[in-house]
Amino acid sequence: MKHLSKILIVIILTFFIIPCNIKADNIKAYTKLVSSNNQVFYGKWLIKKVAASSRITEYGDKDIKKILGRTITYHKDKIVYGKHILNDPRYEITKVSETDFFYGGYVELSKLGIKKKWVKEVDVSTHSGKTWYAFGDLFFIKNKNTLILDYGGIFFELIRK
Asked: pTM of the prediction?
């Protein structure tokens, strides 16, 4: 029993020590609420393909096939995905370093075709600040014509329609 306790202590300490050795990126993170009428992600988007996936995902091939080819629309005053509508959404943009992106449980930015050392993450919530649990609630801006949408560990590539 004492031997098992020592092993358990070593394992627990390892989880605290390993993150201390990770070199932080030299990216100044920022978060801002969107209040502008003109954002690069506003518009209608076609869900084109799966760009990448995490090791563990919530959805299978049948679920993915139902999503591909559909559209989602982001506007200042509304988000529409099929029958799901969020009126007066709140968009929060955060600049995320490639290290933080990866250690946040995601894949490498390069696997998504992003060559920068950071990416802008857009987190959607209700006007009152409550999390909106629906398809399209978290996405990343790859460029002005491409978004990457994370849904259950699947990274969908969206193209401007």
From this structure: 0.78
